[in-house]
Amino acid sequence: MDGIRVNVIAPHALSPGLKGWIDSNPTEAEAFFNSIPLRRVGECEEDIGRTVAFLVSDNARYLTGATIPLDGGQAYWG
């Protein structure tokens, strides 16, 4: 074995495109946020970036083959 780890993230973050949609569709955006258990989308650097930094660090050296939903609980993956 080569010791290569493979993990996947499924991010749900406040991108410029999503921000534009939220600003243009406040009623739909409120319903959208209500469908997320944490009631918000992730921040690109704080939520998504920190998780990616963890995944590439030695702290996650035994983690492989995982899909990690970073979506505030919206997908309810099991």
Question: How would you characterize this protein structure?
Answer:
- This protein has helices at residues 16-24, 26-34, 44-55; strands at 8-11, 67-70.
- The chain is an alpha+beta fold and 78 residues long.
- It has one domain (8-70).
- Strands 1-2 form a two-stranded parallel sheet.
- The mean pLDDT is 92.
Q: With helices defined by DSSP (H or I, 4 residues minimum), what is the helix count? A: 3
Elements, N to C (H/E): EHHHE
Multimerization state: single chain
Q: In percent, how helical is the residue content?
A: 25-40%
Which class best fits the helix and strand makeup?
Answer: alpha+beta
Beta percentage is 5-15%
Task: State mean pLDDT (0 to 100 scale).
Answer: 92
Fold topology:
Layout: E1 8-11, H1 16-24, H2 26-34, H3 44-55, E2 67-70
Concise structural overview:
The protein is α+β, with helices and mostly antiparallel strands. It is 38% helix and 10% strand.
Descriptive terms for the model:
alpha+beta, two-stranded parallel ribbon, 2 strands
